[in-house]
Specification:
alpha/beta; 9 helices; Rossmann fold; five-stranded parallel β-sheet; elongated; about 10% strand
Length: about 300
Amino acid sequence: MRIVLLGAPGSGKGTQAKLLIEKYKIPQISTGDLLRAEVAAGSELGKRAKAAMDAGSLVTDDVVLGMIQNRLAKPDAKSGFILDGFPRNIPQAQALDAMLARLGQPLQLALLVDVDKDVLMKRITGRRTCSKAECGAIYNIYFSPPKVQNKCDKCGASLSHRSDDNEATVGKRLEVYESQTSPLVAYYKAQGKLRTVKGEGPMPVIFKNMCDIIETQIRPLAAVMGRIDAVAAARERAAAKAKAKEAAAARAAAKAAKAKAAAASKPKTKLATPAKKPAKPVKAAKKPAKPAKKAVKAKPKAKPKAKKAK
């Protein structure tokens, strides 16, 4: 399954993505994680990304797409992936579609986690985190407050609040989402790939609703896509076979033409006519055999004459 998750900051799509990868055993591809990993590895893409960030510029789309392509080439992404944080606008979505089409791995589902703006504001501004890095417990003063104010329930350490989790900053972030990322909803809806899940309420309920959508939409689609891929693969094999046959015929024709040209270029020599053998003398015709003599009948012997009595 190949999914892109959509949702505003604070919608909880990152949390749901972690649950999905655990259930379906496919990787979550977060562009933020990819950027950090490539920069740490010192790869060519990482160097280009670092240069852009050091200059205070945005990392270009071709760099991000290159990182995504490299990530999709790994074995664990063979069965699918969940994209989180990319694309953020229509041009990025179009570039992503083109790249995935070349790889033969088009998106199957765009899943929108929909949350009201007021709820988003409370989720972000009310977020509190345990100050101990080894603990890292997260609370929300509106929805899941600690038992003791500003104290971690697990380790007792104080809770911290990010300076940019204030209403002014969060409001601007949501405005950027509405202006840039929100049009993606219409983009994927036009493709027939958009499905929406309400991102409010107990987390297990939200997760179940997401899984129901995936099972309903992707499983049948995956079967159809599998058949389409099989037919396409068969056609490619047949085309390759026909092409190989044509190439073999062309090589044979070229070889024959070359041989004919070589033969034509050789000087013609008259072959000596072999001497005729002398004619055998004609034998004289045999004389016809003499006819056999007719047999002469023997004359009957004369009877002896009787002696006269004296």
